[in-house]
TrEMBL record, chains A, B:
Record's keyword annotation contains Transcription regulation: yes
Protein's name in the database: DNA-binding MarR family transcriptional regulator
Organism of origin: Streptomyces netropsis (Streptoverticillium netropsis)
Keywords associated with the record: DNA-binding, Transcription, Transcription regulation
GO molecular function: DNA binding; DNA-binding transcription factor activity
Amino acid sequence: MVPRTDALTLEVVELIATVVARYHEEYEEAAAKHSLTGAQARVLALLASEPQPMRRIAQQLKCEPSNVTGIVDRLEARDLVERRPDPADRRVKLAAATEAGREVSGRLRASLNFAREPLAGLSAQERTVLRDLLKRMLGEDPDDPYTHL
Amino acid sequence: MVPRTDALTLEVVELIATVVARYHEEYEEAAAKHSLTGAQARVLALLASEPQPMRRIAQQLKCEPSNVTGIVDRLEARDLVERRPDPADRRVKLAAATEAGREVSGRLRASLNFAREPLAGLSAQERTVLRDLLKRMLGEDPDDPYTHL
DNA sequence: CCGCGTTGCTTGACAACATGAAATATCGAG
DNA sequence: CTCGATATTTCATGTTGTCAAGCAACGCGG
């Protein structure tokens, strides 16, 4: 196997670090334009697609549930999110995006031009190659669907 | 040009988001193993390669200089970083990694296995293709070296 | 049905990170 | 030398994050 510190690998890692930095930058910036923090935007995006119990939000954010309480509190104070009882389990509170919340989330997603700009320079064929390489890198091998978790 | 919301582009963006999330996760985790926060690890890495004025650290972190004060304070309290006067301008304080700081930074870098694991499954040729696509995506066209900043 | 351990959420205390405004010291141009 | 600009720090404040403790509700074994 190729040594793990060869120049090519280091270069790719460096590039990925740059992608990560730029992606984050753009995301925070886009969120700020809607008076949201990054964390608030992420939670709102989660809830815009589907109402979820607090616990599950914490799992997806990889943080403690007590942290989610505060984030949802702030979103709720702005009527972007609401807490509903779970009819199946009275311990659970389902956080759901309100109509206003979905609207903001939609506009935010649309304003995220990371999707467009950096990929615009790549042909459809190149994007396909990139997609497959990223999938392989992430362990979702398109030729071996049993590889992924 | 291809519409900016076609399925392929969205899929690639989704994959990039996953890469970003996983990279961050691993970075924080690796930093925590050395009792550092993500921000501290980033600053330490910056200073390990070269001493810098506070102002410049803030620019690279894209935050206010007043924020850097606290981060460097905490690193300095652990003798990983020291503040030196700038002989050319007495307003400036140069933050520099100590020997211990460089040592920790080096071990942290080595423990970042994001470099290895995800890329291990790709052949050298595939990594070359990935490198070039990422470069193109980031505006550093390998065929046109004058494009990059 | 009744206890009792488990689960889901919130609260409180605390640390780190982030911003903005104001204070201080120094620089540099005129 | 004066005065505006620059580099850093301090302070007040808000958000994110952790952990421990508390409470309500679930559900299982008896």
